[in-house]
Amino acid sequence: MTAEIDVLVLGGAGVDTIVHVPELPVPLADSHMIRPGIVTRAGQSGDFVALGTSALGLRTHHLDLIGDDHEGDLVRALHRDHGIALTAVPQPCGTKRAVNLVGPDGRRLSLYDATRGSETDRLPEETVRGLAAVSRHAHVVITQPCADALPLLREAGVTISTDLHDWDGVNPYHETFALAADLVFLSAAALTDPEAVMRRIAARGRAEAVVATAGAEGAYLLADGELTHVPAAEPPAPVVDSNGAGDAFAAAFLYGRLGGEDALHCARLGAVAGAYACTVPSTRVAAVGPEALLAGVAGHVPGTLSGA
């Protein structure tokens, strides 16, 4: 069957309420005056990956559980406005939502509403199979219903990527995703030894490449048994917020990978996209386009072999 979808994104659709705070952690006080204000907008991990791949010209389809509520309307509008196909499975518990506390330096603390889902949530098997059958690649967000879809995606023969975010390298929940994916992204923020965790993922699972992002320090790429340090790219404007930077990195990496580029070049694309995302205020959603991405990577410093 001919592929109609380049990237099928599973999970991670939701709404964030952005609250700017004077610093993180928030100083204990009876109240704080918040500027530039409090804004609620659609856009969580899966939304940002879908936005990123779509902006780069990849045919993208997003699948998730979404409620019949105001937050769900915001998610549906985001996809409609950006021309991203969306299959919204009804979620009686409501659409995923979170509060993001954003400090002056762009760092954030996310508070997720754990009531917007249940242990019995599932993505319909027929829907997953049908979309996977016409997809080249699936990016799976680590939200609870998506773990059960991994075997279905594997049966369909699509390649799989996932983002473990700030995994500590120990929590068993993340391992299901890490060991099933061909391409694994994670943040180095909670890891004392990123290289050891990356090599363990590659040895125990099926990952051809593992990427650990490290903010201003760039990223580490493990591919073909070699660990390479990929420097951070120069942001095209002042850094205002790190929200969505990891998702932008993943989207650009997939753009390169599906275009036949080697892993190091893909990581360099990711670094440029991640830097661009850091210049976008948390109250907005925007992704780098192909021309700006390719121009940015042309001036990016190549990676060097490193012992993270």
From TrEMBL:
Species assigned in the record: Streptomyces atrovirens
Pfam families cross-referenced by the UniProt entry: PfkB
The keyword Repeat belongs to this UniProt entry's keyword annotation: no
Record-given protein name: Adenosine kinase
Key word Mitochondrion present: no
Segments traversing the membrane: none
Domain of life: Bacteria
Taxonomic classification: Bacteria, Bacillati, Actinomycetota, Actinomycetes, Kitasatosporales
A GO MF term: kinase activity
Keywords in alphabetical order: Kinase, Transferase
Ranges where the Carbohydrate kinase PfkB domain occurs: 181-284
InterPro entries: Carboh/pur_kinase_PfkB_CS, PfkB_dom, Ribokinase-like
